[in-house]
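Researcher: Let's run the pair from yesterday's discussion. Sequence first, then tokens, for each.
Model: Starting with the first of the pair.
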Amino acid sequence: MGPDPAKGADCLVEARAVSLRFGGVAALTDVSFEVRPGELFSIIGPNGAGKTSMLNCISGRYKPTDGQILYQGRDITGLKPNARADLGIGRTFQNLALFNHMTVLDNIMVGRHHLLKNNFLTGMLYWIGGAQKEELEHRREVEDIIDFLEIQHVRYAMAGTLPYGLRKRVELARAVALRPDLVLLDEPMAGMNLEEKEDMARYIVDLNEEWGASIIMIEHDMGVVMDISQRVMVLDFGRKIAEGLPDEVKAHPQVKRAYLGEDDDEGGSEDSPGDPADDDAARVA
């Protein structure tokens, strides 16, 4: 079934009955949801619930076994990650994926690489006519991002020498460098202290409200999720068990049992540790 044109204007991302299996292991089962333009949408759930797998299906790292991913009304299920970046989808990773031997400035510039107009056929003429002008424009954009995330003092530092909290900020800067319409954030506050979390939460809200980016965020800190999210979806064992406003989700009985651990002596806590990089395949349906 093709996309509904009337729905496209009100829906930025749509997952339609998405399932993902790794052999006999089900990471996702029949998950459907929508994210509206300009929305800050969070996905929560216990370790191994399928959160990162869902983000990987949206970014193109994984292709769903069944179902569809639509972006702005277009079926992108079969598109490669670079093609999705060209459409305006940026992301950060649960485990840092910076170039440690490069400066902060160069790491952020990598995020704008796909926007460069140069190619093999036009390279020589382009270099003579417009390369320097374009380079200045890209530098200007990057400096705006550096100012926004308050990392001016480390712009020339090697990324690998920075404290963990600053490296997380640099990775967000690189994701934002392509000026995406949609930013996928995979546990942006994992491993941070309270002050670093407060700063990151502020940057995410400003990115959403001032820069106009739609955001899909995975995060284990329930306080942050409930404070800054407009809507929340809960996964457990690869299935959606709740979706709605933060207060509605927080009061949902299944969420209390599966995520907050209420009425379950072995349940998770609000400050559960972060998932391993690909732990979504670790739970058998």
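Model: Moving on to the second of the pair.
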Amino acid sequence: MNYEAKIPIKLWAEDDRPREKLILKGKQALSDAELLAILIGSGTRTKSAVDIARELLDSCKQDISALARLSVKELCKVPGIGPARAVNIVAGLELAARKKRSEAEPEKIAGSQDVFQLMESKLSDISHEEFWVLYLNRANKVIEEKQISSGGISGTVADPRIILRYGLELKASSLILCHNHPSGNLKASEADLRLTRKIKEGALLMDMQVLDHLILVADSYLSFADEGIL
């Protein structure tokens, strides 16, 4: 039996009532810990939901982006967080990330900053490497964002033939390559440079242009075009 569910909300400790506070004062009145406590749902016999939320934030040094990178398995290592609560947290943070992506999406890609704003929430908060391509029309508007591959911490394989095939299917005029470095290293590797050249050469044969290749890390990026290494 869930004894906590039997206790009326008015009898909960102050720290266990973030839901009531949200209803009465609005979402802006809640701290990060209180918002997270709502996703957690309830406390334990010795800790309130807010206590658990504070400990979870402390473990991530109060960095919401770092929290968003944690998997369900990693969240379950925190005392008081079980699979159901971990799933709620992951789902809530993913909704926030999707909202951010929808707000950041530009009508037209004018430069590397536009690409970064579009792809940051997809690539900056994950612990493995992924390779994406933006396919653009002649007006530099995004036709489609396509994930090409997903790998491990140190690398992922991107097949130029698959990238160019999608470009032909979408009738794209240009491409922008994007991948992340979970290590935080913003330096382009020799493999990154070779792959970029190979895709660029193949795209030209198909009347498509590679406009840029971005390497993303948390809160920053490297643009091959801006650096003159495209």
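Researcher: Give me one sentence on the second I can quote.
Model: Strands lie at 130-136, 142-150, 174-180, 209-217, 220-223.
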